[in-house]
Amino acid sequence: MIPAEFDYVAPETLDEAIRALADGGEDAKLLAGGHSLLPLMKLRLAAPALLVDLRRVPDLAGVRANGDIRIGAMTTHSALVRANAGLASVAAATIADQQVRNRGTIGGSLAHGDPASDLPAVVLAAEGTIVARGPGGEREIAAAEFFRDYLETTLAPDEIITEIRMPGTEGWSFGYEKFNRRREDWAMVAVCALVRIESGACADARIGLTHMGSTPLRATAAEAALRGQPLEAGAIAAAAEQAAEGTSPPADLNASADYKRHLARVLCRRALERAAG
Amino acid sequence: MAPVRVSLDVNGTTYEREVEPRLLLVHFLRDHLGLTGTHVGCDTSNCGACTVHLNGEAVKSCTVLAVQADGAQVTTIEGLGGPGDALHPVQEAFWEHHGLQCGYCTPGMIMAAADLLARNSDPSEAEVREALAGNLCRCTGYHNIVKAVMAAAKATGRAEAAPPPPPGDPTVPVTGVGA
Ligand SMILES: Cc1cc2nc3c(=O)[nH]c(=O)nc-3n(C[C@H](O)[C@H](O)[C@H](O)COP(=O)(O)OP(=O)(O)OC[C@H]3O[C@@H](n4cnc5c(N)ncnc54)[C@H](O)[C@@H]3O)c2cc1C
Ligand code: FES
Ligand code: FES
């Protein structure tokens, strides 16, 4: 399988990349790790006329955890795993296999907007933000405002994600539970849970759902049910029962909508149990 | 569409070529350089037969453009061993422990395993299986592959842990004298 023809540039600065993208118009696409875009191009489901490769743009890769967590857009999944930055690193370690993790990036993963990918729900649950630069300058988009629909985000076509920011995890514990049958498969469902525990009770809970809708989602009913409760088995199980509340997950070859709701409840319980220690 | 000039270091030799941007790294290696040890199995980033090292990291070369590897160092199965016909410890162990049957997956398996041992010289069996999760084999059932990788780790570990030769050994070159 060979992609359709296209032109290729690899600019050396962010400003040049923004210009190349703007000049290329709607037929231009950014290229990061290429592990979502190239498979689509090989299947001819995408045929951009110009690829603007970010690989030579400096300062886009790296993880800084200094109070808050800042992850450069071109940070590969394997670099994020090595950085050991809590929930995001644990979730990144479950992405496909070592070879895929060595190429795929967090910026590409968020921009692609696939609700079955692991990192979007993590950034959403952590109440992170996405920093993007375009011809008009820089803006910081809350994750809750970022994911619009299946493979659709609120990023403008000429904007480049430069960094992902997440609040520091001090005082929070977390759990990540993903269900799939082979390492190369995306999650049938995955659940991430962040819990702030104060004197044995849940002071705050943030729960993210992967592949339970056309975008990543928060399990708001389960979060509300857990807040203020003691973090013990009964309260966790009762909250997890509400994990699929208000969702209409897409059925596919692997799982019916009902089965996905079931998975969300079970995985939510396990993620909360893990977070509770 | 405009061809792009690339320069790649493949197995220690620098190659400069004009390529179409859509040329995949695996086709550059096989069709342009004649390095047919790297295989194409699935062409969809699932099977790992096309695994090579790009700047020291295992990647699936069916999902990398040749232009993305401009300026990079690439190692293929042909370049993994030492000088001459010397085999890499993982190659040696696949031979010794019958880690292959038809051999189609083998170059990719060996490149993925060598990548693991470069990161982790003493992996558990679970870590070996995890590191090879992106490589499919339709013949062996994986058992002897895992055995071979564990054996290669032990062999490399022994070589590294070998005690230094005693002082005064005439085969050890003396350096720094009088410095
Ligand atoms: C076999 C296989 C299995 C996989 N399994 C999983 C899995 O289980 N879970 C999972 O989460 N992912 C999975 N992935 C996807 C992988 O994580 C991708 O690498 C990732 O989703 C996209 O990152 P990328 O850097 O490869 O992006 P690319 O493919 O380069 O780009 C993807 C999209 O994002 C845009 N883009 C890229 N960078 C930026 C930027 N900085 N700013 C704005 N737009 C940008 C591109 O224009 C393109 O539209 C899998 C991929 C493969 C091949
Ligand atoms: S040919 Fe590249 S992963 Fe199968
Ligand atoms: S030995 Fe035949 S596919 Fe692995």
Provide keyphrases for this structure.
heterodimer, A: 277 residues, alpha+beta, Uridine Diphospho-n-acetylenolpyruvylglucosamine Reductase, domain 2, Uridine Diphospho-n-acetylenolpyruvylglucosamine Reductase, domain 3, Enolase-like, domain 1, 3 domains, five-stranded antiparallel beta sheet, four-stranded antiparallel beta sheet, 11 helices, 14 strands, 32% helix, 27% strand, B: 179 residues, Ubiquitin-like (UB roll), DNA polymerase, domain 1, five-stranded mixed beta sheet, 5 strands, disordered C terminus, binds flavin-adenine dinucleotide, binds FE2/S2 (inorganic) cluster
Molecular structure report:
- The complex is a heterodimer of chains A (277) and B (179).
- By secondary structure, chain A is α+β, with helices and mostly antiparallel strands.
- Chain A has eleven helices and 14 strands.
- Chain A has three domains: 7-53, Uridine Diphospho-n-acetylenolpyruvylglucosamine Reductase, domain 2 (2-Layer Sandwich), CATH 3.30.43; 63-166, Uridine Diphospho-n-acetylenolpyruvylglucosamine Reductase, domain 3 (2-Layer Sandwich), CATH 3.30.465; 172-276, CO dehydrogenase flavoprotein, C-terminal domain (Enolase-like, domain 1, 2-Layer Sandwich), CATH 3.30.390.
- Chain A has a five-stranded antiparallel beta sheet with strand order 4-5-10-6-7. Chain A has a four-stranded antiparallel beta sheet with strand order 11-12-13-14.
- The termini of chain A are far apart.
- Chain B is an alpha+beta fold and 179 residues long.
- Chain B folds into two domains: 4-78, Ubiquitin-like (UB roll) (Roll); 89-155, DNA polymerase, domain 1.
- Chain B has five helices and five strands; from the N terminus they run E-E-H-E-E-E-H-H-H-H.
- In chain B, helix 2 packs across helix 5.
- Chain B is globular, with a radius of gyration of 19 Å.
- At the A-B interface, helix 2 and helix 5 of A face strand 4 and helix 3 of B.
- The site of one FE2/S2 (inorganic) cluster (FES) has 11 residues of chain B, from loops.
